[in-house]
Amino acid sequence: MKARNLIACLLVAASVSTASFIVQAGDTPQETVQPSSINTRDLKEGDRAPDMLMRKESAVSDWKKRGLQQPEEDSQWARVGDKFVLLKTTNGTILEITPVKK
Questions:
Q1: Which pTM does this prediction carry?
Q2: Cα distance between residue 56 and residue 58, in whole Å
Q3: In this predicted structure, what is the pLDDT of residue 96?
Q4: What is the C-alpha separation between 96 and 53, in angstroms, rounded?
Q5: What are the backbone dihedrals phi and psi of residue 54, each rounded to the nearest 5 degrees, phi first?
């Protein structure tokens, strides 16, 4: 009699634990919008720029067309929202912040 009860309990426990895996597998992940890691209100001259702005992909190549001064060696312009940020690529120091001219 004890063996029957033990087997019945094990079967119930196994079916409950399997059911929870099935339920979890059926859940679809919710898409969320992550806030931008760059907040232009927080950027000030002399501060360190976020690493993503120091990448070559972030550089503004047509700085002259946009009315910006030529960046010095080891410097580049990057656009952050409605501002252009001149930064030193060697240490990430923000040298100048200029609004985008419309």
A1: 0.60
A2: 5
A3: 94
A4: 13
A5: -85, -10
